[in-house]
Amino acid sequence: MESTLRRTWAEVNLDAIAHNYKTIKEKIGENTKFLGVVKADAYGHGSIQVSKLLQELGADYLAVSSADEALELRVNGITMPILILGHTPKEQVGRLIEYDITQAITCKAKADEYNAEAIKCGGVLKVHIKVDTGMSRLGYLCDNKNFDTGVEGISEACALPGLNAEGIFTHFAVSDEPGDECLKYTKHQFDLFKRVIAAVEEKMGHKFAIHHCANTGAVARFPETYLDMVRPGLLLYGYGEYAKEMGLRPAMTLKTTVSTIKIYPEGTAISYGGIFVTDKTTRIGVLPYGYADGFFRSLSNKCSLMTKGGPAKLRGKICMDMCMIDITDMPSVDVGSEVEIFGENNSIDELSAIAETIPYELTCAVSKRVPRLYFRNGEVVEKELMLRF
Ligand SMILES: *Cc1c(COP(=O)(O)O)cnc(C)c1O
To answer: Do both 89 and 209 map to the same domain?
Structure first.
């Protein structure tokens, strides 16, 4: 059975992602590897489709957050190296080895656990060592007081027979934030990372094959941090101020349609709670798009969506499956008219600012019930419906 599609859908422009990849590649240069971050279903864009494209374009590495996300790519034809950034239960080590998936090693306990499991399986697990230089999340703690123990722990992990330490990496906490303090913090993290690498490599007597740390903020602003490989996510999908500065293009356009139009007299309270009351005769369009599709209820009464007649204000509370826009001054907008929630004509950066969040959260939130249409050269090349017909 076919989906009707004309409800609410996401258009993913693979050409935009290809353009972004090539533009970033030009910036980082021939000799720097490109790791595309495709965790969380490629920030909601579809990790299989995005990974296939990156594989075709010649990218070097992918990163996901879990073993399930990595295996999903493997069973769907992705053969390029994949790094798991997050936690993997030790019971999965055998499968990681079998499917040639690289695991981040974040502390001594995990190193020992994964090593024991790899030996039990009769294999060697490829790993990248994660250094905590100030993100204070995962990774070997290596700040001033912990420098020696950190270096010691990493060196021990690298010597374990069940682990093959291909790479070492760290993650920046404020590389995308403005201001001198953040600049200083990032530089401190980077310097510490370099000192850890030097100390560990001296102990080991050889170098890691891949050193990496540059996320979106660092790719855009700190070329000195590129090392062997960069690790952008958001930039690849074309959102945020740095993407704009670099001439990158937003990959996703989220669209819906006007399902019903109603004319209300002055003094009518719209939707749950009646937080919006009409102050004149008002023409309201009902959209089949609500918080179950990933709209943030906190945007109720606060944002505008783009119609062919211009931006239309959202009126009243956002419901589970619907929301309402004011099209009083837009006679050209009719039942069936397309409405852009975000995309080329309604910036996700502005929408996320109104929601007091970041664009990442909005694309990740587009729910599974929203079909994805994949475009190349203006043509739909794939439909991902996520329905169980
Ligand atoms: C998510 C993530 C990235 C990508 O971050 P962006 O800000 O989207 O570039 C890079 N590295 C790690 C470790 C991450 O978790």
So the answer is: yes
